[in-house]
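EI: anyone free to look at a 71-residue chain?
SC: sure, send it
EI:
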Amino acid sequence: MDKAELAKLEAYLRKTFGLKNIGLRPQPKKNDMAEVFIGDEFIATLYRIDEDGEVEYQMQMAILEMDLEEA
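SC: here you go
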């Protein structure tokens, strides 16, 4: 993903979740993946899927049981 694509995705995520401090960081070794952060905390991975000329994005977030106990 290039910088322009990441900027569009970041704007979409900020609007959708109502978070100004959500950000994307490109994965240097993979051009189809970025890491999603809220502030300095990593929360998910975002993948670009390109099949048959159609593009979609999938965000994967893992929630650990121990994280639920802290809430």
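EI: The chain has a mean pLDDT of 94.
SC: 👍
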